[in-house]
Amino acid sequence: MIELTEKKFEIDISQWKQEELGHVTGQSIRKTRGSQREAFEQRMNAQYQHLCQGTADRTRDLCEKEDLTALFLVGSDRLIKSIEAALPQGFRHPVVLISERGNVMGIAETLAELQNGKIRTFVVSREFDARLQQCKHCGWTDRSADPSCSACGSVRQAVMLHDALPELARQFDTKMEVVSGESARKFKDAGGIGAWLRQPRQVELTLAAKRAT
């Protein structure tokens, strides 16, 4: 196996500006924040589609340049199916999808999936920590440096990963495990944090329970 090239998926949400809420109160505020959350998710989906299209274009060029005989796409269904769909109709190479179901790695994806109710158990290295921003209103937490929450537009405050994780685990009924020693150092090199995902039905029940509290 020879590594030919590498490109990371990076989404910068710092420039996504929120519209002013204006003079609205009560139920109107909740509806407005709900629509902002929907707009945020639509933007994220659009960014992923853009990145998958770019990956498909690079893959096509790489296959032609290196005269490869087949293409194996390995990863989550969300990504590899989107990349496959973005390949041109005349793509000559057989495509094999290898789905890595049931787990995520890295701080950005783990935090996002955790707060979407999709994580059953997550593991974090004791030696791994990071500075985050957490919304004072809705509690959404991520690594963006934007002082305003991308989900609801409210003010955010700085928190550390190790301080935020226990409360997030409690809110979303998620099991948290911390590894230390040599295992922690190796795990830190691999991203520092990862998780196993819930089944879809479990996600629905988790989110319903959180809305009820």
| Strand order, sheet with most strands | 3-9-4-8
CATH architecture of the largest domain: 2-Layer Sandwich
Supply the helix-strand structural class.
alpha/beta
Low-pLDDT windows of residues: 19-24
Structural features, described:
The chain is 43% helix and 20% strand. The protein contains six helices and nine strands, in the order αβαββαββββαβαβα. The chain has helices spanning 27-66, 77-86, 107-115, 161-171, 181-189, 200-212, and strands at 71-75, 95-99, 103-105, 119-125, 131-135, 141-142, 156-160, 175-179, 193-197. The longest helix has 40 residues, at 27-66. It is globular. The relative contact order is 0.14.
Topology:
Layout: H1 27-66, E1 71-75, H2 77-86, E2 95-99, E3 103-105, H3 107-115, E4 119-125, E5 131-135, E6 141-142, E7 156-160, H4 161-171, E8 175-179, H5 181-189, E9 193-197, H6 200-212
Parallel strand pairs: 1-2, 4-8
Antiparallel strand pairs: 3-9, 4-9, 5-6, 5-7
Outline:
The chain is α/β, with parallel strands linked by helices. It is 43% helix and 20% strand.
Give short descriptive properties of this protein:
single chain, 213 residues, alpha/beta, 60s Ribosomal Protein L30, Chain: A, 2 domains, 4-stranded mixed beta sheet, 3-stranded antiparallel beta sheet, 6 helices, 43% helix, 20% strand, globular
